[in-house]
């Protein structure tokens, strides 16, 4: 296979140097491995900033305010939150842990939105006492807790209602969250939203500013967004007449698709934005309503393609006429997505990028599970022990879903930008396990 065809695998932020090594934003990945070891997750910060700028640019012609809120469940760290705070984006957190880290990073409180289908009393108390920007209410139980806490803290809070609109995105069933049968939000078709609106309108310290809906993830078309916008705006008109409900904010969630392999064909970000803005304008006009603010919550589409996982190749096993397994020193403990979602990835040998591809192999993880397979079929130069495998587009839901299964330490996270590297999260060690452990000898 010639060089030009092979390099089509590389992401837009990558190049190959004279040593035939993979380079990410000016940093040689072999140097990263020599410095920090493997497995290691590498994030191109320049690309993250480019994605944020692209979203802002895509919505700049909208006639009302817009907010880009990074969905930090995709990946969070102290250093990332510090960087995002300077990029003038908002932040979507889904737990007390993410909220704690965001506050420690000095992220502006007024730009934090708190999501979650089972927020605890303590989590809500932290959010309300810190006077964060918005809470996205997910259920009736939460309404009662927020009422109690706003009274206790003697403060008001802005909220959105999360609506389950009955719109299914064309995606994997485990990452589709907009259909009626979902653990998230108030069901639109059964009248739950109306009941929630009436309850909230009766509570003085809860200020209901709008609606939220999220229809899924890794979406490659705009139809779902258009349908849910039509539904929510037409319903908002009814609720305006019935309950004096004002749709000041319409949050259409995230889910914008990215490229994992050549089979993926995500739309340009401006196409998603154009469709969303056009649908809001159209249906606001049809219902004689003011244009609401548009909020979006991209996570994967901001950090996904910016992340690359580097592994060291270890053992190999050939089953004649069936398959060749090539094992690496990571796997499902640092990237559960292939096992959980049947997610597909591609990559290269980072230390031998442009060598001729000779062999189809399957990349096996280190965990003691037959299902720990990172890539089932990939053609590479004949791999050798201690080669470095780079797996692309691992920036979303890799480290954030990592575990210590088999007592495997979580990997290091390294940021790169303009030829410089920075250790954002150090590698766990086996000594770290002892921080939470007690010897039975201490049991008296």
TrEMBL record:
Name of the featured protein: Diaminopimelate decarboxylase
InterPro entries named in the record: Ala_racemase/Decarboxylase_C, DAP_deCOOHase_LysA, De-COase2_CS, De-COase2_N, Orn/DAP/Arg_de-COase, PLP-binding_barrel
Sequence positions bearing N6-(pyridoxal phosphate)lysine: 73
Free-text function comment from the UniProt entry: Specifically catalyzes the decarboxylation of meso-diaminopimelate (meso-DAP) to L-lysine.
Annotated substrate binding sites: 300, 337, 341, 369, 397
Catalytic residues as annotated in Swiss-Prot or TrEMBL: 368
Membership in a protein family: Belongs to the Orn/Lys/Arg decarboxylase class-II family. LysA subfamily.
Classification via SUPFAM superfamilies: Alanine racemase C-terminal domain-like, PLP-binding barrel
Complex formation: Homodimer.
Organism (species): Alkalibacterium subtropicum
EC number: 4.1.1.20
Keywords: Amino-acid biosynthesis, Decarboxylase, Lyase, Lysine biosynthesis, Pyridoxal phosphate
Cofactor: pyridoxal 5'-phosphate
GO molecular function: diaminopimelate decarboxylase activity; pyridoxal phosphate binding
Main EC class the enzyme belongs to: lyase
PANTHER family hit by this protein: DIAMINOPIMELATE DECARBOXYLASE (PTHR43727), GROUP IV DECARBOXYLASE (PTHR43727:SF2)
């Amino acid at each position: 296979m010639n060089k030009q065809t092979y390099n089509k695998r590389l992401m837009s932020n990558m190049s190959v140097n004279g040593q035939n090594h993979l380079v990410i934003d000016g940093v040689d990945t072999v140097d990263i491995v020599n410095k920090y070891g493997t497995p290691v997750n590498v994030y191109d910060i320049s690309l993250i900033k480019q994605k944020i700028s692209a979203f802002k640019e895509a919505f700049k012609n909208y006639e009302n305010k817009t907010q880009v809120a990074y969905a930090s469940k995709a990946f969070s760290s102290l250093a990332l939150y510090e960087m995002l705070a300077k990029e003038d984006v908002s932040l979507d957190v889904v737990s007390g842990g993410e909220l704690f880290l965001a506050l420690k990073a000095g992220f502006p409180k007024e730009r934090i939105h708190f999501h979650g289908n089972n927020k605890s009393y303590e989590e809500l108390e932290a959010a309300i006492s810190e006077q964060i920007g918005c809470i996205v209410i997910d259920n009736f139980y939460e309404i009662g807790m927020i009422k109690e806490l706003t009274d206790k803290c003697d403060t008001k809070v802005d909220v959105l209602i999360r609506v389950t609109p009955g719109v299914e995105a064309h995606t994997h069933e485990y990452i589709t969250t907009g259909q009626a049968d979902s653990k998230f939000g108030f069901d639109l078709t059964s009248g739950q939203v109306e009941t929630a609106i009436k309850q909230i309108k009766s509570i003085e310290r809860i200020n209901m500013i709008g609606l939220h809906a999220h229809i899924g993830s890794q979406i490659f078309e705009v139809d779902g967004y258009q349908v849910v916008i039509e539904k929510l705006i037409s319903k908002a008109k009814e609720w305006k007449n019935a309950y004096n409900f004002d749709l000041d904010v319409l949050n259409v969630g995230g889910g914008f698709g990215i490229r994992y392999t050549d089979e993926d064909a995500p739309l340009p970000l401006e196409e998603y934005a154009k469709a969303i803005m056009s649908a809001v304008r159209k249906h606001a006009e049809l219902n004689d309503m003011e244009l609401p603010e548009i909020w979006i919550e991209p996570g994967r589409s901001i950090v996904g393609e910016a992340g690359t996982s580097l592994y060291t190749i270890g053992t190999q096993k050939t089953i004649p006429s069936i398959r060749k397994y090539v094992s690496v020193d990571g796997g499902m403990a640092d990237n559960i997505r292939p096992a959980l979602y049947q997610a597909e990835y591609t990559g290269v040998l980072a230390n031998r990028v442009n060598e001729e591809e000779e062999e189809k192999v399957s990349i096996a993880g280190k965990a003691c599970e037959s299902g720990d397979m990172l890539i089932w079929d990939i053609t590479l130069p004949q791999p050798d022990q201690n080669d470095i495998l780079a797996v692309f587009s691992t920036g979303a839901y890799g480290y954030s879903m990592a575990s210590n299964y088999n007592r495997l330490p979580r990997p290091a996270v390294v940021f790169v930008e303009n030829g410089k590297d920075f250790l954002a999260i150090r590698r766990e060690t086996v000594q770290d396990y002892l921080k939470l452990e007690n010897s039975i000898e201490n049991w008296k």
